[in-house]
Design goal:
By secondary structure, this protein is mostly helical. The chain has one domain (about 1-140). Helices cover about 55% and strands about 0% of the residues. Helix 3 crosses helix 5.
């Protein structure tokens, strides 16, 4: 698995695409890429086990490939929609992947889902969105301060 991820992160375009396509083929098999349940700390923790980190790195590498712009998010969405994969397996990894993907094209669509998203997929997306928003609000940099009389920018003439 680590070799495939290294290919997907390669600076050589041909090797990178081979790695990305291989990773997606494995992702189609579902839980093949997921760490064993005893390797995960909790549904809200970051995946720390090597297989979990490899999976996150693989998804991030694949999601950055413009050639795979449609198939990669669709494949990750299918994990969110799958009733065959447990919340404990999917949610921590999806959150970790999305933390590194939020500013990229397709992230919003992945979080919102579509009319074909399953009930479990919609529930997982809500949980992910809530978690990502909460993390942003609680981060050290936090949200921008609310303007007060002391810190308002100068008004424009007019």
């Amino acid at each position: 698995m680590s070799e495939i991820i290294n290919w997907a992160e390669s600076t050589d375009t041909d090797i990178r695409m081979a790695g990305a396509r291989t990773f997606l083929a494995l992702a189609e098999a579902g839980d093949v890429l997921l760490p064993a349940p005893d390797e995960q700390e909790s549904p809200t923790s970051h995946p720390t086990a090597l297989p979990g980190q490899l999976c996150v790195r693989g998804w991030r590498a694949v999601l950055q490939e413009t050639i795979l712009a449609e198939s990669a998010p669709t494949r990750l969405a299918s994990w969110l929609d799958s009733s065959q994969l447990s919340d404990e397996a999917v949610l921590p990894l999806a959150a970790e992947v999305l933390r590194g993907y939020l500013g990229q094209v397709g992230a919003a669509a992945l979080l919102v889902g579509s009319s074909t998203s399953s009930g479990i997929g919609r529930s997982r997306r809500r949980q992910l969105l809530d978690q990502l928003i909460l993390e942003h609000v609680e981060s050290p940099s936090g949200p921008a301060p609310v303007p007060t009389a002391d810190n308002q920018p100068p008004s424009l003439p007019g």
